[in-house]
From TrEMBL:
Entry-linked PANTHER family: HISTIDINE BIOSYNTHESIS BIFUNCTIONAL PROTEIN, HISTIDINE BIOSYNTHESIS BIFUNCTIONAL PROTEIN HISIE
Family note: In the N-terminal section; belongs to the PRA-CH family. In the C-terminal section; belongs to the PRA-PH family.
Protein name (Swiss-Prot/TrEMBL): Histidine biosynthesis bifunctional protein HisIE
Pathway: Amino-acid biosynthesis; L-histidine biosynthesis; L-histidine from 5-phospho-alpha-D-ribose 1-diphosphate: step 2/9; Amino-acid biosynthesis; L-histidine biosynthesis; L-histidine from 5-phospho-alpha-D-ribose 1-diphosphate: step 3/9
Pfam families with a match to the protein in the record: PRA-CH
InterPro entries on file: PRib_AMP_CycHydrolase_dom, PRib_AMP_CycHydrolase_sf
Keyword Amino-acid biosynthesis: yes
Reaction catalysed by this enzyme: 1-(5-phospho-beta-D-ribosyl)-ATP + H2O = 1-(5-phospho-beta-D-ribosyl)-5'-AMP + diphosphate + H(+); 1-(5-phospho-beta-D-ribosyl)-5'-AMP + H2O = 1-(5-phospho-beta-D-ribosyl)-5-[(5-phospho-beta-D-ribosylamino)methylideneamino]imidazole-4-carboxamide
GO molecular function: phosphoribosyl-AMP cyclohydrolase activity; phosphoribosyl-ATP diphosphatase activity
């Protein structure tokens, strides 16, 4: 089986990182399925996440590994990891230990684009 066929239809985990060594990771709430945040993972972050059960990401601005909640305590406990068809994006199903967004709200997606302006999402 070729790499493409194996990656797309096989059972072997073969993450496909981009030219910067990253892949996209979308975080959803394990119970509500609400989108909480989007981050980027390199191999180190992916390995740390799998080893600890806590979500780790690659900080593009700082150029280093960071564990979500390492300073706030608002960690993301990973329950499962979904892998897309060509293995270049992940969905982390997590239980958050507090707000996910650095602004203090549950989700980083708290605004909606409405007629060209950002409005708060109505619950």
């Amino acid at each position: 089986m070729g790499d493409t066929t194996e990656r797309e239809t096989g059972s072997r985990f073969m993450p496909k990182f981009d030219d910067k060594g990253l892949l996209t990771a979308v975080v959803v709430h394990h119970e509500t399925r609400a989108v909480l945040m989007v981050g980027f993972m390199d191999q180190v972050a992916l390995d740390a996440t799998r080893e600890t059960g806590l979500a780790h990401f690659h900080s593009r601005s700082r150029g280093k590994l960071w564990q979500k909640g390492e300073t706030s305590g608002h960690v993301l406990r990973v329950q499962s990891i979904l892998v897309d068809c060509d293995q270049d994006a992940l969905v982390l199903s997590c239980i958050p230990a507090g707000p996910t967004c650095h602004t203090g709200v549950p989700s980083c997606f708290y605004r909606v684009l409405d007629d060209g302006a950002l409005q708060p999402v109505k619950s």
